[in-house]
Amino acid sequence: MRDLPTSLLMFIASRYAQNRIFEAGREAGLTDVTFAQSRLVAGIDPDGTRLSVLAERAQIAKQTATALVDKLERAGYVERVPDPADGRARLVRLTARAEAALPIARAEETRIEREWEAHLGTERMGQLREALVMLREITDPYLER
Amino acid sequence: MRDLPTSLLMFIASRYAQNRIFEAGREAGLTDVTFAQSRLVAGIDPDGTRLSVLAERAQIAKQTATALVDKLERAGYVERVPDPADGRARLVRLTARAEAALPIARAEETRIEREWEAHLGTERMGQLREALVMLREITDPYLER
DNA sequence: CCAATATAGTTCGATCGTAGGACTACTTCA
DNA sequence: TGAAGTAGTCCTACGATCGAACTATATTGG
């Protein structure tokens, strides 16, 4: 077995988790939400978030975010409301339907973390998280989140 | 700052590395290779690899792999040769042009690893790698690689 | 040996994700 | 108030993705 780059090892594990979460959603009936869409949804704050902020958080262009929100809106997961603070802007907000779906993803996330901790042991899992949090300081372009 | 899921922390760091490597390639003149294509290329063995194996390694459908190889072939990075062991199959092989480009990616990879180690310290970097390698045991569907 | 079945790869067609450029509406600031 | 900046959208184009159907070759049971 070759010595894989650290970043590739991270990619393997994170893709695994993404697939699991995605699959859990689908089994719960969320057949019409794609991965890119769910990544955008993950960036929506409780009180709604501007489209340009969502684009920034997901690291995609505004036009892409517009397209994704269009589809999410048509499927009934988000709505666009005027931003009272700025007439040009609109806030993207989760609908009740989306709020109902979120716990599914969170539960699967928790399940995965527990499995990982069981495999690594509490100490190693803690070290893993510590290192990843530190790494974020030099790899995340949007730390303000 | 919220407590992000471990898998998301991994995603952030691995995406950063991917972007860096991709950018390094582009600065070195590899303007015509996309990210999906390079992920496919990464799965090619020195003696050539069957398309279906590449698809499996990259976790994409055969049709997708066909399309990617088509583009890579047109750009002169890979070639298809008959598989002497099976008349139905063909081996996808790197061309000299691709072989010449590989060191660029590897060098950037090495640079990133060094930066991470400098930020985390040798011990924590070692712990990070150890945990990730262990995690691979339960998250990588293609460990035989 | 051959017919049935399986496998490797391709083609077709559809959909999603992505972004550059140009545009409209609104805001900010000198 | 007018010029410059910003939020979001529309148009257009292309890459990635895959289900379904197809061709060519291989394998296998009788």
UniProtKB/TrEMBL annotation, chains A, B:
SMART domains attached to this UniProt entry: HTH_MARR
Stored InterPro entries: HTH_MarR-typ (IPR000835), MarR/SlyA-like (IPR039422), WH-like_DNA-bd_sf (IPR036388), WH_DNA-bd_sf (IPR036390)
Classification via SUPFAM superfamilies: Winged helix' DNA-binding domain (SSF46785)
Source organism, top-level taxon: Bacteria
Pfam families: MarR_2 (PF12802)
Occurrences of domain HTH marR-type (ranges): 1-137
PANTHER family in the cross-refs: HTH-TYPE TRANSCRIPTIONAL REPRESSOR YETL, TRANSCRIPTIONAL REGULATOR, MARR FAMILY
Stated name of the protein: MarR family transcriptional regulator
Source species of the chain: Intrasporangium calvum
Lineage: Bacteria, Bacillati, Actinomycetota, Actinomycetes, Micrococcales
